[in-house]
Amino acid sequence: MGLKRSSSSLFLSFLVALFLVLSNSAVVCNAGETSSFVRREAKSVDMPLHSDVFQPPSGYNAPQQVHITLGDQEGSAMIVSWVTMDEPGSSEVVYWKEDESSVKKYAHGKHKSYKFHDYTSGYIHHCTIRKLEHDTKYYYEVGIGHTVRRFVFTTPPPVGPDVPYTFGMIGDLGQTFDSNITLTHYEKNPRKPQALLFAGDLSYADNYPNHDQHRWDTWGRFVERSVAYQPWIWCAGNHELDFVPEIVTIFPIHVVVYNSFRKE
Ligand SMILES: [Fe+2]
To answer: At what angle do helices 214-227 and 177-187 cross, to 10 degrees?
Structure first.
């Protein structure tokens, strides 16, 4: 009996504590109104290769699949990644603060490529920009010659207990017609998320015969319109594992790494 009363009061205390936590977090974490958007239930099909969202930028060796993610835990570094298809080109990023366009800085990165079955990747560049100021808008450029491409991002505010910062969240995106609707919906959100938490399962290239890696390239070009401008923070899902014992003999072959949706 005593034990039961003690359990009941413990449970009551737990409920009170939970209420306090939730009511407090409701004040601290006000996400505003959520959307009424619901994806249709019908099975979706992948967008064909000639879709506009998959087209590479024009120009010889133009950087494509440009994407950024946070480069440290304080928000003062950003990793810029991109792919060049014709030749390595440059792994350098030029960047500057919005209000100091005359003070350009340079960060040097590296490139690599990989083979998978009958696929050979382009040149995959990673470059970390460090010592960035918080809450600051930066422009950055990748590429050389006639195919320089310019983007912009804003660094997060300094770390603190009650710092306002809005995250979006997407998982299982893929590259279907509904994927495009989902990404457009995210972009149009009036709350304007400043970074995105990606809950795994990116391209679904593994749905194709021999895990057709070209579908990683199409996916990279598809999401560039968002991830080149705000950091996406990655988590690997089961679709990132290229487990194909019929064509490769070493496992695991690849998993997505924290700083890139390209495999390394
Ligand atoms: Fe999934």
So the answer is: 20
Residue with tokens 């809950």: 199
Whether the predicted pLDDT of 204 surpasses 60 = yes
Whether the Cβ atoms of residue 175 and residue 158 lie closer than 8 Å to each other: no
**CA terminus-to-terminus distance, the chain:** 60
Mean pLDDT in residue range 217-240: 94
Non-local (6+) Cβ contacts of 29 within 8 A are: none
Q: What is the whole-number distance in angstroms between the Cα of residue 207 and the centre of ligand 1? A: 12
Largest Cα–Cα distance in the chain? Answer: 81
How far, in Å, is the centroid of ligand 1 from the Cα of 209?
Answer: 19
Q: How many CB atoms lie within 10 A of CB 87?
A: 9
* Residue, of 74 and 32, whose pLDDT is higher: 74
Q: Is-cis flag, bond preceding 252, omega within 30?
A: yes
Q: How far apart are CA 209 and CA 91, in angstroms?
A: 32
H or E element at residue 4: helix 2-28
- By the 8 A CB rule, do 185 and 226 touch? no
Rounded distance from Cα 251 to ligand 1 centre (Å): 21
Taking the C-alpha atoms of residue 188 and residue 181, their distance in angstroms, rounded to an integer, is 11
State the distance from the centre of ligand 1 to the C-alpha of 41, rounded, in angstroms. Answer: 16
Amino acid 3: pLDDT: 37
The chain-wide mean pLDDT, for the chain, equals 85
Q: Which of 33-47, 88-102, 132-146 has the lowest mean pLDDT?
A: 33-47
